[in-house]
């Protein structure tokens, strides 16, 4: 898994740099105002999954799966619900990484 770097967006804006999605998945910061940006340059749809590590009454909480249509760009909030207590980061996987690029930004809340 690759550790994605978070771009902090100030009041004057910021340049966002995208990188290739890692075949084995990625990790990123969590919290208020954190967004995972996913661009799908492929001809088919892809699914991005954020692991939900917690449980409720011993029962697992379902992971969040987000479809990204062909040619689309999606912003996914990465709240602390996705924070793994042992790593302090969210775990992200992809059903395919061909032509998929990602970035993480944190905006003021």
Describe the fold and architecture.
The protein has 109 residues and is mostly beta strands. The protein has a single domain, classed as Hypothetical Protein Tm1070, Chain: A, CATH 2.60.290. It is 0% helix and 44% strand. It contains no helices and twelve strands. It has strands at 2-3, 6-8, 19-20, 26-28, 34-40, 46-50, 55-56, 59-60, 64-68, 73-77, 90-94, 100-106. The strands form three sheets. A five-stranded mixed β-sheet has the order 1-4-11-6-9, with no helix packed on it. A hairpin with a 2-residue loop joins strand 7 and strand 8 (59-60). The protein starts with a strand and ends with a strand.
How would you describe this structure in keywords?
109 residues, mainly beta, Hypothetical Protein Tm1070, Chain: A, 5-stranded mixed β-sheet, 12 strands, globular
Short recap of the structure:
With 109 residues, this protein is mainly beta. It is built from no helices and 12 strands.
Indicate the proportion of strand residues.
Answer: 35-45%
Structural class, by secondary structure, is: mainly beta
- Gross geometry: globular
Which spans have pLDDT < 50 for at least 5 consecutive residues? none
CATH class: Mainly Beta
Placed side by side, the strands forming the largest sheet appear as: 1-4-11-6-9
Order of helices and strands: EEEEEEEEEEEE
- Rg is 14 Å
Number of β-strand runs: 12
The CATH architecture can be named as: Sandwich
Q: Mean pLDDT score, rounded? A: 97
Instruction: Give the domain tally.
Output: 1
Largest sheet: 5 strands, mixed
N-end to C-end Cα span = 28 Å
What is the percent of helical residues?
A: under 10%
Number of helices: 0
Say what the CATH topology is: Hypothetical Protein Tm1070, Chain: A
């Amino acid at each position: 898994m690759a550790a994605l770097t978070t771009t902090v967006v100030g009041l004057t804006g910021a340049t966002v740099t995208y990188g290739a999605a890692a075949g084995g998945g990625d990790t990123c910061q969590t919290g208020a105002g954190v967004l995972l940006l996913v661009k799908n340059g492929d001809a088919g749809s892809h699914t991005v999954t954020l692991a939900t590590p917690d449980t409720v009454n011993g029962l697992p909480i379902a992971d969040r799966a987000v479809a990204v249509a062909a040619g689309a760009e999606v912003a996914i909030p990465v709240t602390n619900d996705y924070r793994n207590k042992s790593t302090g980061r969210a775990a992200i996987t992809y059903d395919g990484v061909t032509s998929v690029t990602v970035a993480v930004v944190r905006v003021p809340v």
